[in-house]
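User: Show me a protein chain along with its predicted structure.
Assistant: Here is one chain, sequence first, then structure tokens.
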Amino acid sequence: MSENLILFYLSKDKLLIDLITYVLDKGHYDPKDMDDAFSVGVYDDFIEAMDPLKRYFLASDLEEFIKYKTEIDDQLKNKELTFFSAVYDRFMQRVEESKSYYKEILSEPFDYSVDEKINVDYDKLPYTTSKKELKERWRQQLKFSTIS
């Protein structure tokens, strides 16, 4: 990638952060203090928005991200994207990995004679601790989707 293109993306990201912080500080009808409590809320909402069904991130990913939980306000003030970039990059990695899961799972018909249960209370569902568990979650969700 050329240096000019890299500079364009960096300046675009900084402009985006400027806009977000302006809206949060001044433009919003209910301005939020940009403090650690704000950071925790953004952290929780962003992780939830990226993986609401808990089919991409592993528990180890969340352990890695947790260090940013109270730093997001500082990053926004300093026009840094470390947290958002780290989460997005890992998400894209996990999306690529998931392609092999669902392709393999869908290559064979589901056995509907097997009595199985699936937990669809995603708010209470823990993140998986291994790729093997994650693949099984994909299998259950795909089978559930075909029944639905």
